[in-house]
Amino acid sequence: MKKRATGAPASDFSLRAMVYDPKIRSIFFQVSTAIIFVILVWMISHNVAENLARSNTASGFDFLKRRAGFDIGDSLIPYTADSSYGRAIFVGFLNTLLIAAIGIVTATIIGFLIGLGRLSHNWLISRLCTVYVEIFRNIPPLLVIFFLYKGVLGVLPNVKDSLEIPGVHIFLNNRGLVFPKAVWGEGSVWIAIAFAIAVVASLLIRRWSYKRQMATGQQFPIFKVAAGLIIGLPLLVFLVLGAPLSFDIPQGGRFNISGGSSILPEFFALYIALSLYTGSFIAEIIRAGIRGVPKGQTEAATALGIQPSTTTRLVVVPQAMRIIIPPLTSQYLNLTKNSSLGIAVGFPDLVATGGTTLNQTGQAVEVVLIWMVVYLSLSISSSLFMNWFNAKMALVER
Amino acid sequence: MSNTSPHYVRSEMLTPLPPPSSDASAAAWVRKNLFASPKDTVLTLLGALLLILVLPGMINWLFIQATWTGADRSVCATLVQGGTQPDGWSGACWAFVGDRFQQFIFGRYPIEERWRPILVGITLIALLVPILIPKLPRKGLNALLLFVVFPVVAFFLLSGGYFGLSHVETPFWGGLMVTLILSFVGIAVSLPLGILLALGRRSQMPVIKTLCVGFIEIIRGVPLITVLFMANVMLPLFLPTGWTIDNFFRALVGVALFASAYMAEVIRGGLQAIPKGQFEGADSLGLSYWQKIWLVVMPQAIKLVIPGIVNTFIGLFKDTSLVSIIGMFDLLGVVQLNFRDPSWITPVTPLTGLIFAGFIFWIFCFGMSRYSGFMERHLDTGHKR
Questions:
Q1: What CATH number does residue B184 fall under?
Q2: A150/B237 Cβ within 8 A
Q3: A8: pLDDT confidence band, cut at 50, 70 and 90?
Q4: A34 and B207 in contact by Cβ < 8 A?
Q5: How high is the ipTM of this complex?
Q6: C-beta of residue B197 within 8 angstroms of C-beta of residue B209
Q7: What is the value of pTM for the model shown?
């Protein structure tokens, strides 16, 4: 056999052999795909250039420095209609981050409670939680947002008939929730520093106590000490400084309420709707995670004489976390992306401010590029973080 | 040995005692499931309190106080608002839904032509039901009819312009009809495209792999609304000068591409779960690549990820509501459009309309998830680890 193979080298280079050679086939397919792709990209960019030239649309990112000329209701940083488009888009980006951050926290709390509730032995509670999950998982988030915005917040009274919680100066009307604004006096920065010191100290104590427990087996009430430090130290500094805190109290007027901080109904509707919607998905993830821990683990812990609460904390939760984290990450990302639905009720997030910019300048390509870069970097950075976290939590086998 | 039993052995059976009352009665069930511990008691009471606070008010608003018939806003507005209801009244305005029902289903499709979408709907049901019942034969023919013949027929029937049917332009399409068309096309396109993308992502060829990974990750990384904006604004830019593309088809392209990327990841999960031996076994039998994928790998992979596929379908169905943001009138869009209709403006109209739309969406999604559970049990051949 070997002799024949070496004896007939010419047949290796025949056309037939070439057609059936997997390597040559693979190269052929790849080269042809690459050529088609390049031609497609070239055609598209040619068409785009031609269409843009025909409609006299400028290209490039110069428009970011031009005056925006539109107002934004909700802004974390100073913004007026005289600010630039770039700043408008940045304001939108900050709003997206804000709604994502607090939405994630709230959705996680809701999801955790509902998920545990569905696992409860209590018949009523588990049924209630099931109804919640089945309702919210099966209707579009956009509908939930509209429902809260139009339905619930729509029935709120006018400014002049604002609902007021007497004594604490909190007003509720169809322009949102107005509450006293905290104004920090001089020296407040020390309170923040005290808080930071307390956090760092708690972390150090935790490390020390862990080391000591590993060495001697003695436990240390780390939770109580850390809680005391983190709450107590800033409070102490606050009192020592003579309580440098005053409130800008909103004054109810006939047409408007002046002063104070306010939460707009758009923000509120979006925030609550996203939390409720994502919460129902997180609940299912939590439930699946906890049910994914074999019952033998709990039983073994009980057999060792470990208390139920300790079993949950040290045996069940760490193992459930491994199942929970990957899908949880994608839910967090979904919430971040779903915050773009705020455009439907007029909440100025990245997509909304970008959309207004797009309509005013007509520079679709650039705006879409900005959207893509921002959302892609958000999603990549969060998946990198979660991969790191996942690796940390992963089962370490022999 | 003697045949007679010793005197201390019982000669007849005792009548069985009733089960202990602590285990069988309704009171015992209540004790066990509602009041097992002090914590449970508190939770039960809280839950009951919630029900008492919410349920009667909800039933009252939705059914008892609700208006069921009427021709305009006066039946759903109070005297102050210019209607006939007593002041302080609030209830669901089902008269609004009844009056606008046709619009919610068909949008602005011409009334005398509405038999066309109805016919399409009946055909869809006639083709869909047999494919969903596992026992019925001829699945291949059925699938061919549903996914290849039906869309073509449906397009010509809905759009018209041929065979003596009048042409109905897509801006007149609307309501549930549009929601269903978008979802159907999304599902019909995303499954095959998703399979191809997933195979491409697992391919040994770096160029194809990079392209597939790039497409999947870019689409999955951005919200659907930006993809729709992109389809809406950029697609016309991509085409040669003078070509135009219908708004409806732009949204269709956006939704289908978006769903494909998600579908690809679900299918990839299934592919990764197939043991390497299956691939090698197929190779050693001398099957070609496509034979291997079609006959050996895909049947197993798809079966593993049916829940994921149905979840993607549910997500797609819900996501179609986003086209209302780019100015199309799907179910949600039409319901919203009608809020602004002067003949029905009342404080209760928006809530009623949204509850109706939510109920329709809910029925479809809940039905799909129930069906996926059924399919999972049906296909479970006991090989699951």
A1: 1.10.3720.10
A2: no
A3: very low
A4: yes
A5: 0.85
A6: no
A7: 0.84
